[in-house]
Amino acid sequence: MPDAPTTTGSPGGGLADDRIRALDAHWRAANYLAAGQIYLLANPLLTEPLRPDHIKPRLLGHWGTSPGLNLVHTHLNRVIKDRDLDAICVWGPGHGGPAVLAGSWLDGSYSEVYPDVSRDAAGMARLFRQFSFPGGVPSHVAPETPGSIHEGGELGYSLAHAYGAALDNPGLLVACVIGDGEAETGPLAGSWHANKFLDPVHDGAVLPILHLNGYKIANPTVLARLPEPELDDLLRGYGHEPIHVAGDEPLQVHRAMAHALDEALDRIALLQRTAREEGIAERPRWPVIVLRTPKGWTGPEEVDGLPVEGTWRAHQVPLPGVRENPEHLRQLERWLRSYRPEELFDAGGRPRPHLLAEVPAGDRRLGANPHANGGLLLRSLPVPGLERYAVPVDKPGATLHEPTRVLGGLLEQVMEDTADRRDFRVVGPDETASNRLEALYHATGKAWQESVAPTDEHLSRGGRVMEILSEHLCQGWLEGYLLTGRHGLFSCYEAFVHIVDSMVNQHIKWLKVSRSLPWRRPVASLNYLLTSHVWRQDHNGFSHQDPGFVDHVLNKSPEVVRVYLPPDANTLLSVADHVLRSRDYVNVVVAGKQPCFDWLDLDQARAHCARGAGTWDWAGTENGAGEPDVVLAAAGDVPTQEVIAAAGILRRHLPDVAVRVVNVVDMTRLLPKEEHPHGMTDHEFDALFPRDRPVIFAYHGYPWLVHRLSYRRAVHPNLHVRGYKEMGTTTTPFDMVVRNDLDRYRLVMDVIDRTPGLAVRATAVRQRMQDARTRHQAWIREHGTDMPEVAEWSWTG
After folding, report:
1. pTM of the predicted structure, to 2 decimals
2. Which Gene3D superfamilies has this protein been placed in (predicted)?
3. Burial 571-590 (b: 16+ CB within 10 A, else e)
């Protein structure tokens, strides 16, 4: 195990003046580059007086946070080099993209991945032009930014990402700059509790740097206005020891920041060394740096008679009318020249050696650390063969198993096989055992650094199951873990995964862009296991019944998203085997945890999952006929059971009707081939769903999703979808499907109503189905359970 970082030099004793001057030069250069990206289209070194045609036609970007981010970047360079630290930084105020780009251009890592943006005048001109410009790069920290694992377009997730990156990385320091606006978000507020799960023996360290520049877009920030003693009490209550840096005089702030970083890193080294050599007596109290500098520091103090520096007006573009207003143009030139670029760059635009004196080399640079390009470090996950875990299926529908419990055995072995390499974690909001995955606890415990009571179970300081009642934190941990080159699974109740809708948006966008960057290596997929799903939340009721996460995900980039609805235990194993091995996807797997009929043996399950959608001839009654009279289709475990039951009723009461049964595992198969890589061609789709035959589709979620996925297909006018339509309550399992017209009796009625010629000759059968639904309502109100003909049903073929 790597040792804790050690101290070199004279921390706390102050830096020599020449080192402070070098740090200041680097900081001034970064500020110059950040401002230049926002404003300049040409004349990057100010070799001639600024003219309007040197200015971009649209001024975009965020100046206000950039000087503070540059300060952090400059000082992290020094301690990384002094201490030979393996470190990355998560930039919470990610809209300060110009600062992070400036830092990576100065350390040379930007030019290494983008050779046309060379570290000279021509490259500086390209760096400036491309920023927030058509065909260029975003204004936020993004996948295009070397050294980043954090999309800065949406605030709130930085600290969770930082802790995810530190997990199982004992030699890594993860600095995390938290903006004071970002600190007001719910996810960030919850993330302060992540230190209760950080193991100082097996994990790395997170150093939060709370940057209080006082303002958001148009308002003051809460934490910046707290009296310092109250803020300290808050941070200490979160388990941190604050170290303060404040000021607006650069050299004084440089000295204070250098001292603060040395003090923080010495504390971290001591905590880690003590834990690793002497054992852990109690949860460590980690340092946090509180950095107070003015918003828009070193920029225009006043514009058009109004204060700017140190106010909310510095948030984005402090001089908005540079092309049209000569005074603004003069102010911009004075501002840029105040950094003395001639001292920072030589005549060819190359950074002068003295400002790079404190910059580390090679992979130690923040822009080049391989942990921030996690695919470089990723190893294949040792997924065992499925034969050991598959359930035997001699005939369809004769036995029942809990699919997620079966999966739990597989995950236990994966956890066991990664015990030494520690690169697999399972996260979830207090639901691992509830979701029948408790076999994991045979291989590892639940991460926990607080006290342990005699009644607690499976808590472990080094555990690799992560449970906290915050879906935001689970998502952020896993994203940080995956983006730094590891593997994982997020298990969640289906209805409440919606809490991370916005977070998964950002991760999908990250993956989409990363796939287009040759230097970004593929990372392990973000895998969701959604269980305790809508159809078996009859006991918890309406609040727990929402299958809409699938709809949300399928709106996103088709090259990234995948959705699977395995109908039984063996198909779940096959799907899990695939998604755990996959790269650069967001995989959503919806599977039940309650006893479910076993339909396919392992070989059949593998073949069916490989197809993604296919016929189950054993359940239908085509018997070699040219085309069926009707197609009964299903996606999801409960819809599959109802379709099979409906097919059995039709076989018994209407044996001359040729029924085709189709099961869909991969929802994206319904899309056209040109819209999704897994989509079917029209020829393939029509072979499965004949265009002139009625299709009764029983779907796990909201029925209009199936219509949306297949609206361009020829069969669409004949497609009738049953699914969840917000008819939920606390009731019996079968009543849930009855309430939503997804039950077997309603499906048989749909077949009769929509198959030409059946409506007249099958009137008696239809009436029998309606009577069964009526009998069901009376039965559950008297007995509180489902009718025996439903509760004791099994497929007889």
Report:
1. 0.95
2. 3.40.50.920, 3.40.50.970
3. bbbbbbbbbbebebbbbbbb
